[in-house]
Amino acid sequence: MEDKEILKRINQGWEPAFKELFGRYYTTLCAFAFRIVKNEESAKDIVQEVFIKLWSNREQLKDISLKSYLFVCVRNTSLTFLRDRKRKEDQLVQIPWEEEETASYLIEEENNRLLFEAIAKLPPRSAEVISLGLEGLKQDEIAKQMDISINTVKFLKYEAIRKLKELLKPLIFWFFLMKINSKS
User: Counting runs of H as helices and runs of E as strands, what totals does the chain give?
Assistant: First the structure.
């Protein structure tokens, strides 16, 4: 059964199609996640979490490439896992001592958390373009890695930034106030 047919049946809640999809991609996705997180158990947990999210949100998944969607979700979930793990390690190692440092640190952490939450709400390909850009890749490198044209990268980036502005707009004034108050 092709991915499009599997997606159609998953949308309808047909569990055998979901099991077939799981069997088809589980091992490959675990290997992909392992390359990012460097831990087999964490990689398995990440892939299982992605499949759980896919099943939970199955009715919203229309006209997508399942393979691309799964890989983007595993990549983003892996990066979130690494970021959260690093944050926890940093909090244990480096405790800000000054009140101003603490406020700035907390504001920066909250900004990053909200940014990554907003990125997670983007369509998978747009989220991947933004994530790769945040990692420092240039547009031509992103195009090559995603196997798409530079114009497609530019369009996806433009659409993603427009959507991020829309998602984060209500929070910008709050961040500004917090930043000013942390300096006084």
Answer: 8, 0
Answer whether 0.70 is exceeded by the pTM: no
N-terminal to C-terminal alpha carbon distance within the chain: 63
* Residues 6 or more apart whose Cβ sits within 8 Å of residue 183: 100
**How far, in Å, CA of 18 to CA of 34, rounded?**
23
> 96-117: per-residue pLDDT in tens?
555 556 667 676 777 777 778 8
| Domain region containing 38 | 1-95
> What total of structural domains would you count in the chain?
2
Q: Which of 72, 95, 118 is the last residue of a domain?
A: 95
DSSP structure string for 13-43: T-HHHHHHHHHHHHHHHHHHHHHHH--HHHH
| 37's tokens | 């997180």
129/162 Cα distance (integer angstroms): 13
Handedness of CA 136, 141, 144, 150 (dihedral sign): positive
Distance, CA of 156 to CA of 125 (rounded, Å): 7
